[in-house]
């Protein structure tokens, strides 16, 4: 059998190290990131490594077990309290560029937001090239439906589910006052993610951002301190400052975040994800529930 169309049957890693710098969306702090290639002898998956003054503070393998709740982003926390936050765009990019083994070093808490989308990560990863590894690539094949829902039957309902499919596909619906109901349906492949999803930016209403920033200062929890017009699709009234980059940009960015959060499972999925008003918290709950329901999935490997 072959893997789903568009995906490789072998694991891969970067052809050379990658280095990027930028500032965090929430902390506002400058951060330097280096992504180091893995090899056939290294551990499977993506590992974050926090460094400071040349010293390793902690290593955090991507796992739902290390995920901690945080507003407006996805965060990992080691047992000693060392954190890595806003990892979702990078995880989505590594997954869809089929970088299965790598170590991400960073000298601050937050992965840089860059232009608010996954496009810079995709471009940088592709520029490094992909080296195929000898191990068969692993997929998580969904065997039966799993669903998470809040407020079912009410106007504020949120839900997310996954069910068996022959490919990795998504249906995501979201609504936003002034913009109506937005929807994206499609098969997720490295090519479709890069072309249709990666360019979409983080977004928000300017009138909501200022109170959130102030509340973050009061609680000692940095929120949106690095938000700028250069890294967000800023909404004023019923328009986006400077216009949308792609059609239905808001729901496409929800897909981007969902792909990154589902990458916490450790491998691409073979299943259909359906989401109504998804959030980072809902995405995490689905990943955790799926992995905990051992008869709902299996590992799948394919020949050439």
From TrEMBL:
Q: What is its EC number?
A: 3.5.1.108
- Active-site residues (renumbered): 280
What pathway does the annotation place this protein in?
Glycolipid biosynthesis; lipid IV(A) biosynthesis; lipid IV(A) from (3R)-3-hydroxytetradecanoyl-[acyl-carrier-protein] and UDP-N-acetyl-alpha-D-glucosamine: step 2/6
Q: Which GO terms describe its biological process?
A: lipid A biosynthetic process
Q: Provide the leader sequence positions.
A: none
- Please give the catalytic activity noted in the UniProt record: a UDP-3-O-[(3R)-3-hydroxyacyl]-N-acetyl-alpha-D-glucosamine + H2O = a UDP-3-O-[(3R)-3-hydroxyacyl]-alpha-D-glucosamine + acetate
Where is Zn(2+) annotated to bind? 89, 253, 257
Role according to the record: Catalyzes the hydrolysis of UDP-3-O-myristoyl-N-acetylglucosamine to form UDP-3-O-myristoylglucosamine and acetate, the committed step in lipid A biosynthesis.
What is the name listed in the Swiss-Prot or TrEMBL entry for this protein? UDP-3-O-acyl-N-acetylglucosamine deacetylase
């Amino acid at each position: 059998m072959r893997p789903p169309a568009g995906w490789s049957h072998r694991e891969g890693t970067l052809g050379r190290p990658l280095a990027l710098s930028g500032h965090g969306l929430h902390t506002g702090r400058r951060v330097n990131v280096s992504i180091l290639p893995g090899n056939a002898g290294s551990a499977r998956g993506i590992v974050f490594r926090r460094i400071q003054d040349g010293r390793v503070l902690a290593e955090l393998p991507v796992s739902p077990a290390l995920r901690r709740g945080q507003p407006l982003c996805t965060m990992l926390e080691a047992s000693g309290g060392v954190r890595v936050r806003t990892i979702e765009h990078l995880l989505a990019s590594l997954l869809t560029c089929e970088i299965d083994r790598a170590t991400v070093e960073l000298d601050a808490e937050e992965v840089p937001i860059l232009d608010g989308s996954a496009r810079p990560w995709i471009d940088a990863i592709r520029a490094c090239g992909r080296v195929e590894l000898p191990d068969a690539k692993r997929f998580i094949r969904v065997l039966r439906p799993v669903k998470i829902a809040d407020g079912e039957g009410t106007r504020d309902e949120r839900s997310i589910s996954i069910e068996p499919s022959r490919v990795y596909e998504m249906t995501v619906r979201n609504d936003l006052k002034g913009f109506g109901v937005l929807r994206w349906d499609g098969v997720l492949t490295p090519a479709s993610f890069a072309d249709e999803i990666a360019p979409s930016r983080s977004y928000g209403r300017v009138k909501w951002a200022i109170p959130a920033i102030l509340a973050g200062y009061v609680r000692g929890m940095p929120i949106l301190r690095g938000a700028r017009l250069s890294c967000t699709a800023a909404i004023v009234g019923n328009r986006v400052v400077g216009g949308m980059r792609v059609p239905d940009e808001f729901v496409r960015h929800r897909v981007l975040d969902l792909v990154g959060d589902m990458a916490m499972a450790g491998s691409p999925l073979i299943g259909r994800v359906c989401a109504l008003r998804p959030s980072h918290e809902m995405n995490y709950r689905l990943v955790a529930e799926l992995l905990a329901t051992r008869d709902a999935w299996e590992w799948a490997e394919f020949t050439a």
